[in-house]
């Protein structure tokens, strides 16, 4: 039940995009087309889940015993970058179909601060391995839901009668702000 | 301090290794990247960026 509460809290209430404002770059850049947004979201789930587990293991089984926990940030950055390179190579070799659908999105994830944010939050929140794995699914799932909904709204905004000065990024940011307000409405649920 | 330097060197080597392995791995046949997805991205370090620029 505790894990389910954590899952709901991280997916909706403490949504990584709308409450912490991580991953705004891919949200703005890849939300013009719902299909691209969906592919990006799936690729993010894949990478955050793996990086969440790997960074947790490295922190508690390498950095803590060696007393170099101050190296956590640089370790997580390099591990995430290496993981993305490895995944891209692995998909090229073993799953060409998945590579075709994710190809261009995988390198983008290296610059997605939500991946690093989840890895660091797992440590600061003192999660155990299971909780870190749940966070590794819940957080990117929240990202996927938001980026997909945002992409569908932006598609409608393209044909909407928006004042000239609000066209493009300004109306998109206002939309993101209203979505953040809406998600605050479920803050008391969990 | 020594452990930190060794650990950092290991991580850098792992990154360089995975980067080179990925770079030398051929893309699957008939795999065409959809560069319209790159419009909102400014990551010039991305391998796909240079590929798209050439086209």
From TrEMBL, chain A:
Q: Which Pfam families match?
A: Rnf-Nqr
Q: Which residues cross the membrane?
A: 6-25, 37-62, 68-91, 103-120, 132-151, 171-189
InterPro entries attached here? Answer: Ion_transpt_RnfA/RsxA, NqrDE/RnfAE, NqrDE/RnfAE_oxidrdctase
Name one process (GO BP) from the record: electron transport chain
- Quote a single Gene Ontology cellular component term: endomembrane system
Q: What is its EC number?
A: 7.-.-.-
Q: What is the recorded membrane topology of this protein?
A: Multi-pass membrane protein
> Which keywords has UniProt assigned to this entry?
Cell membrane, Electron transport, Membrane, Translocase, Transmembrane, Transmembrane helix, Transport
Q: Where in the cell is it found?
A: Cell membrane; Endomembrane system
- Transmembrane: is it a keyword of this entry? yes
Its biological purpose is as follows: Part of a membrane-bound complex that couples electron transfer with translocation of ions across the membrane.
Q: Tell me the protein family, please.
A: Belongs to the NqrDE/RnfAE family.
Quaternary structure, per UniProt, is:
The complex is composed of six subunits: RnfA, RnfB, RnfC, RnfD, RnfE and RnfG.
Question: Which named protein is this?
Answer: Ion-translocating oxidoreductase complex subunit A
**Which source organism?**
Sharpea azabuensis
């Amino acid at each position: 039940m505790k894990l389910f509460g954590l899952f709901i809290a991280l997916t909706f209430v403490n949504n990584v995009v709308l409450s912490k404002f991580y991953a705004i770059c891919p949200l703005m850049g890849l939300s013009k087309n719902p299909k691209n947004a969906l592919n990006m979201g799936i690729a993010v789930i894949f990478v955050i889940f793996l990086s969440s587990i790997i960074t947790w293991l490295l922190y508690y089984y390498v950095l803590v015993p060696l007393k170099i926990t101050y190296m956590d940030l640089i370790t997580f950055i390099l591990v995430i970058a290496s993981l993305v390179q490895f995944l891209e190579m692995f998909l090229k070799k073993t799953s060409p179909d998945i590579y075709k659908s994710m190809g261009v999105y995988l390198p983008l994830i290296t610059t997605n601060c939500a991946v690093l944010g989840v890895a660091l939050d797992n440590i600061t929140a003192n999660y155990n391995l299971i909780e870190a794995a749940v966070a590794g699914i819940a957080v990117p799932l929240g990202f996927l839901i938001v980026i997909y909904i945002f992409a569908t709204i932006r598609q409608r905004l393209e044909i909407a009668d928006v004042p000239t000065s609000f066209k493009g990024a300004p109306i998109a940011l206002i939309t993101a702000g209203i979505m953040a307000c809406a998600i605050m409405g479920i803050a008391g649920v969990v | 301090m020594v452990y930190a330097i060794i650990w950092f060197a290991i991580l850098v080597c792992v990154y360089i290794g995975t980067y080179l392995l990925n770079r030398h791995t051929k893309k699957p046949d008939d795999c065409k990247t959809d560069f319209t997805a790159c419009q909102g991205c400014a990551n010039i370090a991305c391998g796909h960026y240079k590929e798209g620029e050439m086209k």
